[in-house]
Amino acid sequence: MSQLSFTNPLLEGLNPEQHDAVATLYGPVLVVAAPGSGKTTVLTRRLAYLIQNGVRPESILAVTFTKKAALEMTGRVAKLVGKETASKITSATFNSLGLKLLEGRYEKLGFTVPKPHLLLESTQRSIFDVLLREHSAEDIRYEDLAAYISWAKSTMTSPSQVKRISADPNEGRMAALYAAYQKRMLKQNLIDFDDQIRLSIDLLQLHDDVRAEIQSQYTHVLVDEYQDTNKAQYTLLRLLAAPQNNLFAVGDDAQGIYGFRAADLDNILSYNRDFPEAKSIFLAKNYRSAPAIVKLANRLIAHNAKQIKKTIEACRTAQGQKVRQVQAPDQFAEAQEVVAQIKELILQGTPPEEIAVLYRTHAQSAIVIEELITHEIPYVVKSSGSFWEQAEIVDMLNFLRLALPKPHPLADVAFENLVRRVGVTKESLAMLKVESEREEISLWEAACRVQRIPLSTLQQRSLVQHAVAMVMGWRKSGMTPPDLTMRILLETGYKRSLEGMKGEKARQKLDMLSTLHEQFKRWNPQSLYELFRQVENQTRPRKTKKTEAVQLLSIHASKGLEWEGVFVIGMEEGTLPYQIAVDEGELPEERRLCYVAITRAKRFLQLSYVRERKRFGQKQTMTPSRFLSEMTAAQPPAP
Fold first, then answer.
1. d(CA 13, CA 36)
2. Is 40 a residue of the active site?
3. Residue 7 among the catalytic residues
4. pLDDT tens figures, 30-59
5. Order of strands across the sheet with 247-251?
6. Rounded mean pLDDT of the chain?
7. Which of 94, 168, 511, 563 has a CA between 20 and 30 Å from the CA of residue 471?
8. 224 catalytic, yes or no?
9. In angstroms, rounded to a whole number, what is the distance separating the alpha carbons of residues 228 and 93?
10. Which residue is catalytic, options 231, 591, 600, 603?
């Protein structure tokens, strides 16, 4: 180690690999940073070190995935070089960077205004509605088309390319809609979220003068979470870093868990192929987790064949470490056991905010939440909102409100949802609303008078009458709330519709509804009023300081975070790994997801699984996750 490392504060306290990463000023560098290896320190000190060694801060571009991460990075650098100097660094997300590059240059790309409007979701939905009608494709869901176009732009797949590479006729229809959407966007001077990156690439590839100007502006490019980049983001980075190729990429292929967002793990795996002269630095020392936890992580990830080979080294002592593997009869018993152990940790002095419960799907959180409420343990659900706020749960509760004998304030919202589901058109619904407003009655009451309303066809009138009859049947059924819930799921076609959809999102919605049904059965309410009192108890606001509460969040949302104690629930085949992901060939990503989960823990880790789960009243025997045996296997997998 040079004498400089003893005198330069920016290099003090660094291990040899961290020192190397900070002090390498030029050329392409790949830093493979294991969990808890101090990568944030490396990134911020390297930014400061570049400036200290004569690189102008205006020439430095630091790219992150979130605005929060960009602000935190700027704040940390400011403490090292001063606020004024740090503010001159371009620290941006990919999308904000795209907007910066495009500013004042849109007309070069065919727009007729200096600054196109950024498309809001509501406006995009309106455009999609028109396109679906024009192309006689109203059977295609708005959400599916939006996801498809976003995927195509993230992977830089044009409509014509889709038609050439896919034999799926439905994908061909999507490609035609995509092409029509792009033409309309350009004509109306609109851009969407994904265009911010796509158009930046077009700008740099099509205009040599602009590319040369921007490349000369940024002589050093740094990017965090490189394993999560998609093809478009990767292409933009390579364009910006050329010709100097001072691209400093930090990431960990073992933590690549965003394939469903079009992240391409090959970007980090092929870094040395893209840059044969690149230096690779491995930050393999883990300062976060106890040795027993690190050992599990090493054993688990070794089963992924396609990876950058590495072994994490634990730097903490084994003092106080505890790893538990727990089997429970069912998901309710699992929640009880988790909360009992949480109470024990709190009694032993672990602050509630230093405890996290992680799960593969949001449906798993509901039962844990109920148990925490029962034991008056403060909690907070991070990132996606609570179980009771999910759209499908809100829909089902509103349908149940329609079945109440007395009108409910949300009845019109629920009934509008219902008539749409049975096939009533927007035009017919609008006529019902006109009648409602004119007569100063509810939408439900207007529907009951549908014979007086001149709807466009007899079929439309019949569909409205069908919806009315359905609700009347619910009100007169005399069924228990759990049985009525199942009847509504079937009669509205809600369950059938989700079962007919492809992909993980639809399956997770079904999991939500199944959990709702099982929870209702467990409560065993004798009336809908009693049911809603139970729901109110679960959803009423509680005075909880987020800094003093147990954290509940999905494994995806936990990335980058850490806690003293971590509970990973649902360690069964079909849950973790998630069955749809396995069916789609994404087992390696599921394994990486489990790796991320266990490496969030510092001292305490509990992995739990159940013998059986109930799904819409049907018992399912569960098998412990293969990841459990992989973690505990003494021998590594054969190469």
1. 16
2. yes
3. no
4. 999 999 999 999 999 999 999 999 999 999
5. 90-93, 60-64, 220-223, 247-251, 29-33, 279-283
6. 90
7. 511
8. yes
9. 13
10. 600
